[in-house]
Design a protein that fits this description.
single chain; alpha/beta; Severin; 2 domains; 7-stranded mixed β-sheet; 5-stranded mixed β-sheet; 12 strands; about 30% helix; binds calcium ion
């Protein structure tokens, strides 16, 4: 975590070592001085270091990584350490250790919560009303964020009506099922598809999630259609994108 340093080049002695240690101490002090100021902070463990996530990425978790979610309440902090299914033991250890260090350095008391992918606590789920998104990949897999104008088509499977979890599934008609709702994300065109057996709460949630993608991720530049209400051309385009 904060002990690691990119600038480290090899064994150090004497003054060089002192300087290195002082640098690390200063870094740790700076880190804990800023922690806990925002209403919610999310840190992803990247090469042992906690990297603060931009609010735009709150609610989006790479299944190959481990995170710490720090939520400020009136009288205490909730510290959630989240482990994706493919996170390494190093990453999980680092996020657990960071949770302990945060407790020791925060200006108020704190409660710890272990969060495992797809088994998150209700408290954790309440933070992400626009859906908890599981993204494939992670730090070690060399995943890079897509360029702003290049979109990889994705099909999102929305599960759960109260606290929706959002899974990326294969972009294919075979991924759909009549009991659930889906969002097909083609970048500037979004489609919402409702299974015939999905209930109205699930449909409402899927609609909210699609709307949130349009608003937050695409800054209103995308077009959103509900497949069942779309024109014949719109419906044909939806099925064509799913492989016909
Ligand atoms: Ca990882």
């Amino acid at each position: 975590m904060v002990e690691a340093d990119d600038d480290y080049v090899g064994p150090l002695y004497g003054e060089d070592l002192d300087e290195y240690i002082n640098k690390l101490k200063a870094k740790a002090v700076a880190f804990f001085a800023q922690a806990g100021q925002d209403p919610m902070e999310i840190y992803r463990i990247e090469q042992f270091e906690p990297i603060k996530q931009d609010p735009e990425f709150h609610g989006k978790f790479y299944t190959g990584d481990s995170y710490v979610v720090l939520k400020k309440q009136r009288n205490c902090y909730e510290i959630h350490y989240w482990h994706g299914k493919e996170a390494t033991s190093d990453e999980m250890g680092s996020s657990a250790a960071l949770s302990v260090q945060l407790s020791a350095n925060l200006p108020m008391g704190s409660r710890h919560h272990l969060e495992e992918q797809e088994m998150e606590t209700d408290l954790f789920m309440t933070y992400f009303k626009a859906g908890l998104f599981y993204l494939e990949g992670g730090v070690e897999s060399g995943f890079k964020h897509v360029e702003p104008d290049v979109y990889e088509p994705r099909l999102l499977h929305i599960k759960g009506k109260r606290y929706p979890r959002v899974f990326s599934v294969a972009v294919s008609g075979d991924s759909l099922n009549e009991g659930d709702c889906f969002v097909l994300d083609l970048g500037l065109q979004l489609y919402c598809w409702f299974g015939s057996e999905a209930n109205m709460f699930e449909k409402a949630k899927a609609g909210e999630i699609a709307q949130a993608i349009k608003q937050n991720d695409r800054k209103m530049k995308a077009n959103l259609d509900f497949v069942q209400e779309a024109t014949p051309e719109g419906q044909a385009a939806f099925w064509e994108a799913l492989g016909g």
